[in-house]
Design brief:
Keywords: RNA-binding. This protein is an alpha+beta fold and about 170 residues long. It is built from five helices and six strands; from the N terminus they run H-E-H-E-E-H-E-E-E-H-H. A hairpin with a 2-residue loop joins strand 4 and strand 5 (about 80). It starts with a helix and ends with a helix.
Length: about 170
């Protein structure tokens, strides 16, 4: 889960379900009530030169993006219901920036770095799980020992009553 959320851009929102008439200035106007906007993009279809019914709104502040998402997801704009959630980083072939003109090997160094970081995170998470499991096992063992100790300290009430009765009879 943490690895998945790592790629999420918390101040950039994906806005889906845009009507054909909606352009970047209309999208900007719809989201500006929630805070200062850094950027608005509506990627164009190369064939038609029209947007592909979605866009991205980047806020300066994460809190503003969260408020916009909460309020605008499911809202209506130009007769169409919007889908608004956090944007994932672009995954277009051609590197980190997502530009197709960039050679695919351009981000090779950062890719290897990310792979090493992810491997290190997995190793640390595994160590952490193992340590937590060991601590839990130890806690359970101590609790079981304490319960055993309590049982030894307790005298069976029936046995106690019988012993008292025997002492009174003697």
């Amino acid at each position: 889960m943490a690895a998945m959320m790592q790629g999420v851009q918390k101040n950039t929102l994906y806005v889906g379900g845009l009507a054909e008439e909606v352009n970047e200035s209309i999208l900007h106007a719809a989201f500006i009530p929630f805070g200062d906007i850094k950027d608005v993009k509506t990627p164009l279809d190369q064939a038609t030169q029209k947007h592909r019914s979605f866009g991205f709104v980047t806020f300066l502040e994460r809190e503003d993006a969260a408020a916009a998402m909460d309020n605008m997801d499911g809202a209506e704009l130009y007769g169409r219901v919007l889908t608004v959630n956090y944007a994932l980083p672009e995954k277009i072939k051609g590197g980190e920036q997502g530009w197709a003109a960039q050679p695919i090997w351009a981000d090779a160094d950062t890719w290897f770095e990310r792979q090493q970081q992810e491997e290190e995170m997995r190793r640390l998470e595994a160590e952490n799980r193992a340590a937590n499991q060991a601590a839990e096992d130890l806690r359970r063992k101590k609790a079981a020992e304490e319960r055993e100790g309590e049982k030894e300290d307790e005298i069976d009430p029936m046995a106690k009553a019988e012993a008292e009765a025997l002492q009174q009879n003697n």
